[in-house]
Specification:
This protein has one domain (39-390). The chain is built from two helices and 26 strands. The chain has helices at residues 2-27, 329-337; strands at 44-48, 52-55, 59-68, 73-76, 81-84, 96-99, 104-108, 115-119, 130-133, 144-145, 153-154, 164-172, 177-179, 182-183, 187-190, 197-204, 211-214, 220-227, 238-241, 247-255, 263-265, 281-288, 300-304, 310-327, 340-357, 371-373.
């Protein structure tokens, strides 16, 4: 009997050891579906065409474009740094990361250990940023090609399409410009579906828009954009077009340089009534500008135009020349129907709360019904100051 007990104990010990090894292998990031992609920490670029590639720890040098193609997955563990190297003069080997339709990204950062995508030279516009293409609806056509990257296809009919999960990511110094009309953003969402998770993400010191949504249905939570550098002007903090419909919570944007607006919002510049019509919902929003004396000419907290709809609630707008700038008859009309509306708005040091401009030159409709005021609005959580949820993993706040 004693022998049997000892035997059972030995078997149990071996089983536990085997289990421990198995868990340890998982912790090391061994992919369940290995990729044929050859991973080189000092030369990260190319096409991931199959399986899962896992970036484990430390720094990876992004030396060109990294494209994750259909059926493949890129997983990035907490604390990983992806550093885009400088583009050699006279070359066009742009550094950026793109997630194609039917591919996935899985960013596993944490508040104490975020994933960071940055550049060797710490200045705005030094690399392309992150581009994600999904199969959710757009109003530019049944599908389209992304304006940056390798003309990747985006758009479709799958509102619940998933491009993966992004949690606790900081994107720094993005916004590389091919020319005046073709620039990367911090993160570009092209037809991304609401099966995708986007939470706790900051765009820091980009030279173009922070987050831009080209159609799609993706939802977001806890987004931050910070533009400070006066010598490399950023564009808008948040931007949408082409029929984006998403539900969002906790956006905080701060611009102290001579960049553009807090939000630039469009439906479709070629057809203001193109469907699906842009109609996001944003709850808990703070936009901080450079001050009402800003001479950049674009000192609007929000420019809402070419047929966009939107609903905002619990909003703080601080240090802007204009709060709500509504343009074109279609968007002006949505103010009257309540489809373009901001409730519980607190204005802090804003010269003109609302301004309307019709499609016909010289028409200035009254759009003051776009907002209702509240002296107790908290915006993203702490008025014009850094919200608690953004502390610890962000920069420049």
């Amino acid at each position: 009997m004693k022998k049997s007990v000892l035997t059972l104990f030995a078997v149990a010990s071996l089983s536990f050891a085997a289990l421990t090894v198995s868990c340890s292998d998982d912790d090391k990031g061994t992919p369940s579906n290995p990729s044929s992609f050859v991973l080189d920490r000092d030369n990260l670029k190319g096409n991931i065409n199959d399986g899962e590639v896992i970036l484990e720890s430390g720094t990876y040098k992004l030396t060109g474009k990294l494209v994750v193609n259909a059926g493949a997955k890129l997983t990035i563990k907490p604390g990983v740094i992806i550093e885009a190297t400088d583009v050699a003069p006279g070359t066009s080997d742009i550094r950026y990361i793109a997630i194609s339709q039917d591919a996935e990204i899985n960013v596993q950062g944490s508040s104490s250990n975020p994933v960071v995508m940055t550049s060797t030279t710490k200045a705005p516009g030094k690399w392309g940023g992150l581009v994600i293409c999904g199969r959710a609806p757009i109003n530019k056509g049944a599908s389209a090609q992304a304006e940056v990257g390798d003309n990747l296809t985006y758009g479709g009919t799958e509102t619940g399409d998933s491009s993966g999960s992004i949690k606790f990511l900081r994107v720094e110094y993005s916004g590389y410009s091919y020319n005046q009309d073709k620039e990367f953003n911090g993160i570009s969402f092209f037809g991304v579906g609401n099966g995708t998770t986007v939470e706790n993400v900051q765009i820091y010191e980009g030279s173009d828009d922070g987050f831009e949504f080209f159609g799609g249905t993706v939802n977001t939570k806890n987004l931050v954009v910070t533009n400070i550098n006066p010598s490399a002007v950023g564009d808008d903090l948040f931007d949408w077009t082409e029929g984006w419909n998403g539900s969002n919570e906790n956006w905080y944007g701060k611009r102290s340089n001579a960049g553009n607006r807090g939000i630039e919002a469009d439906n479709n510049s070629n057809n203001h009534l193109a469907t699906p019509i842009s109609f996001p919902i944003i709850k808990n929003l703070t936009l901080v500008g450079a001050g009402p004396d800003d001479t950049s000419g674009e000192a609007q907290a929000m420019k809402l135009r070419v047929g966009t709809k939107a609903k905002f609630d619990n909003v703080v707008l601080a240090n802007w020349k204009t709060g709500f700038d509504v343009q074109h008859d279609e968007s002006v009309g949505y103010v009257g129907t309540g489809d373009l509306k901001a409730t519980n708005v607190k204005f802090v040091n804003v010269t003109t709360k609302s301004k309307g401009t019709g499609t016909t030159a010289g028409t200035t409709p009254d759009v003051s019904a776009i907002y209702t005021e509240s002296t107790t609005a908290t915006g993203a959580g702490n008025g014009e100051n850094t919200p608690t949820w953004a502390q610890g993993w962000t920069l420049g706040l």
